[in-house]
């Protein structure tokens, strides 16, 4: 009778140790918000690299005169060509945007585009103007900014 109890105790200790080894211990994070932010940064970089691998992305800076071929969301077959000067750029990973100013019938129009948008089919840099500012909002006052 005593041998049976020792065998059952040994087998129960083996079962509990095997259960502990199969189940991974939970990872303890000191600051969960920092860890989540780090994971999001990694995912953001991977998404940007994926988009850059699919199509060619020229480096766009304020002062560049660019020509965009943009797919109109309402009509998927129509591609409109937009030519203007880049007056601002906001770097935010996958959400990077740039602002273009152009003249339409003598009226200045500004458009904000996401750089990695699937609606932008092609970006072509036509000219590079030398500027000393990161944001060229002063061009709003000038009518002939493209010349």
Question: Describe it for me?
Answer:
- There is one protein chain.
- By secondary structure, the protein is α+β, with helices and mostly antiparallel strands.
- The chain has 2 helices and 5 strands, in the order ααβββββ.
- Helices cover 30% and strands 31% of the residues.
- The protein has a 5-stranded antiparallel sheet, with no helix packed on it.
- Strand 3 and strand 4 form a beta hairpin.
- The model has no long low-confidence stretch (mean pLDDT 80).
Which spans have pLDDT < 50 for at least 5 consecutive residues? none
Strand pairing plus helix content: what structural class?
Answer: alpha+beta
Strand content: 25-35%
Average pLDDT number: 80
Distance, first to last CA = 102 Å
Helix run count: 2
β-strand number: 5
Share of helical residues: 25-40%
Identify the quaternary structure here: single chain
What overall form do the CA principal axes indicate?
elongated
Characterize the biggest β-sheet.
5 strands, antiparallel
Radius of gyration: 29 Å
- What series of H and E elements makes up the topology? HHEEEEE
Q: Which sequence of strands runs across the widest sheet?
A: 4-3-2-1-5
What would the keywords be for this entry?
single chain; 147 residues; five-stranded antiparallel beta sheet; 2 helices
């Amino acid at each position: 009778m005593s041998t049976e109890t020792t065998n059952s105790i040994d087998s129960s200790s083996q079962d509990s140790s095997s259960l502990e080894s199969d189940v991974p211990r939970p990872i303890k994070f000191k600051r969960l918000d920092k860890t989540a932010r780090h994971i999001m940064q990694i995912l953001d970089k991977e998404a940007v690299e994926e988009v850059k691998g699919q199509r060619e992305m020229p480096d766009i800076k304020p002062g560049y005169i660019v020509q965009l071929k943009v797919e109109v969301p309402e009509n998927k077959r129509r591609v409109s060509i937009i030519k203007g000067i880049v007056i601002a750029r906001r770097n935010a990973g996958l959400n990077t945007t740039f602002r273009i100013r152009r003249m339409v019938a003598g009226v200045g129009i500004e458009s904000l585009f996401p750089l990695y948008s699937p609606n932008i089919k092609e970006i072509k840099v036509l000219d590079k103007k030398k500027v000393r500012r990161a944001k060229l909002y002063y061009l709003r006052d000038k009518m002939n900014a493209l010349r």
